[in-house]
Amino acid sequence: SIVNDAHNQHLIAWNNSGTSFFIYNATRFSQDILPIHFKHSNYSSFVRQLNMYGFHKINKSPRGQRGSNEYEVWEFSHKNFQRDNPSLLEDIKRKTMDSELLRRENGDVHASLATMQQYQADLLRQFKTLEENYSNLLQNMEEMKKTQAQQQATIRKLLDYATQTSSSKYEDIIFLWSSLMCLLKSRQTKICQK
Q1: Has residue 88 got a pLDDT over 80?
Q2: Distance between CA atoms of 11 and 16, rounded to whole angstroms?
Q3: What would be an example GO MF term here (predicted)?
């Protein structure tokens, strides 16, 4: 109805064949026509709307020779927007994404989600393994502290005994000392193997 209105012919009109329409002054068109038919007066938004419904701009002015919106002529066309064929208007629909593209994107999302879930499960397993290793390490450290305390107590007893005994029992002390060292080495090996 905008294009067919005789009062608007100075701003918007059909081409001679009725297969496209011209907008002669985008600034005045935005100020005078858009607010009457739309909730805005933004020409760029109007052009975006046309594009969303499959209209194409036919560029008449060569690159670099465009003037201001006041003098530039814009031409738009759509195969189902024709002056003498209003029954085609019902075929003008907002562009939707191709169903195959949607299906592909949906598959990509599901694949990404599955990958992320697998990655999360792997991280959880690694975290549990780290927790177990940390717990074992703490337990081993406690056992080593106990063993070290026992060793120090035994060494003190041996030193006390050595200072109180005569040199004749020195051989007994050396035997006890070597036995103690063997015992300590076997305990450390046992703890480290855990």
Answers
A1: yes
A2: 15
A3: sequence-specific DNA binding
